[in-house]
Amino acid sequence: MMTKTTLYIVRHGQTEWNIQKRMQGHQDSALTLLGEQQAQWLGNTLDSVNFDCIYTSPSTRAVRTAEIIDGKAKTPIIKTDLLKEINLGKWEGQKQEDIKKQDPEQFDAFWETPHLFQANSGESLTDVQDRVLPKIKDIIDHHKGTDILIVTHTVVVKIVMAYFENRAFRYLEPPLYSSCMLVYSRNRE
């Protein structure tokens, strides 16, 4: 018998550092009012979905987005470091314009050719893939036939997209850093 497992994969709402054009990575900043509104809009859209559970990065921005989307449902929220954003090392907290001046080749690679990006003291896309994909597979295996909300970060979302769409990193959709929500449904025996 085939069972349908559906993953709703969401990037957190807009943050203060998004507005300031600061790189976040593992560091955190609060959702803006718009970021909270974005989560509320998505929560309204997903109101008819009864999530079995919610997995989220432990970053405040992701947890808060998950809480707003879930609303009054009080679905169990499971925080895992494996869904954290890419570790950007010494770039974290810095403004994009400053990074572009200091490290123009890697800055351009991060935005335009992510498969060539090599973090200065953080993670590569391969590092992120190696931590994220086993967790995604584990989530699917442990929640067969259910609806699961995953609230995470852009680079993680893009890597999961590439996995499900069988695309190489070089074909990640620019810009690498954008808002998005994806729904993946897989029939499993």
Task: Note the topology.
Blueprint: E1 3-11, H1 16-20, H2 33-45, E2 53-56, H3 60-70, E3 77-79, H4 96-102, H5 104-112, H6 125-142, E4 147-152, H7 154-164, E5 181-188
Helix pairs in contact: 2-3, 4-5, 6-7
> How many domains, in number, for the residues?
1
CATH class: Alpha Beta
Strand content: 15-25%
Question: What does the radius of gyration come to?
Answer: 16 Å
Helix content: 25-40%
CATH architecture: 3-Layer(aba) Sandwich
Low-confidence stretches: 174-179
Secondary-structure-based class equals alpha/beta
Please summarize the sheet with the most strands.
Answer: 5 strands, mixed
Distance between the termini: 6 Å
Number of strands: 5
CATH superfamily heading: Phosphoglycerate mutase-like
What topology, given as strand order, has the largest sheet?
Answer: 3-2-4-1-5
Order of helices and strands: EHHEHEHHHEHE
CATH topology type: Rossmann fold
Mean pLDDT: 88
Total helical elements? 7
Taken from the alpha-carbon principal axes, the silhouette is globular
Description:
39% of the residues lie in helices and 16% in strands. The protein has one domain (3-188): Phosphoglycerate mutase-like (Rossmann fold, 3-Layer(aba) Sandwich), CATH 3.40.50. The longest helix has 18 residues, at 125-142. It is of the alpha/beta class and 189 residues long. The termini are close together. It has a five-stranded mixed β-sheet.
